[in-house]
Specification:
Length: 225
Amino acid sequence: MVEQSEFHQRRVWGEEAIHRAGNLRQLAISLQRLLDSGKIDTSDRPRTIRQANALARAYRTLDMADELDPYSCAQGLRDIAAGLVEIFGHTVGSLVLSLDIQPLSLPGEGRRALLLAVSELVINALRHAFVDRQRGILQIRLEHDQACQEGALFVADDGVGPGDLTQGGGRGCSIVRDLAAVLDGDVVWRPSLLLGGTEVILRFPLPAVVAVSGVIASCRVPAEP
């Protein structure tokens, strides 16, 4: 059973990496078109470079998947979400990212699965949620239910809505389900009652009590002239 679990996780890591590379390539192509057309103000280049470096560092820390000691998820989650929005949010136009992240520590494989789920959901929103839109909102929350000893990730947007995602969705949804399985969790897609678009909820058990305190951060990708 242990060997089967390890084989399954290696397959999940490999499929996620290939899928992420393809999605980032498509976002990069869209971004290059905007740069070539002169529709993007390059005055914020230093900030974008800093966010890109933070994003790269956050992805590199996921190589610590074999670590057994719990490691904080909060900063990596912020760096991945904010980095993706800072770099590729221009493909939408004006995108507001709201983060409400409670400190949460997970062992290496669990942390890797959670942060890669965030990455996949943010990339999916950037590519599909705001079609024919010039602005949008993306909200991410990470919470800890002490009564149930359960973690919960919420990713919501005000985009086009879940469509067929509630019925299964495509390859990205399958990867998120596989990542949830690594966490022994469950994930659902549904219409967002608050924002009117899509809300994804990933719930997973926690191995030990984790002290939490709310930390809220936000960033905005300004509208292009």
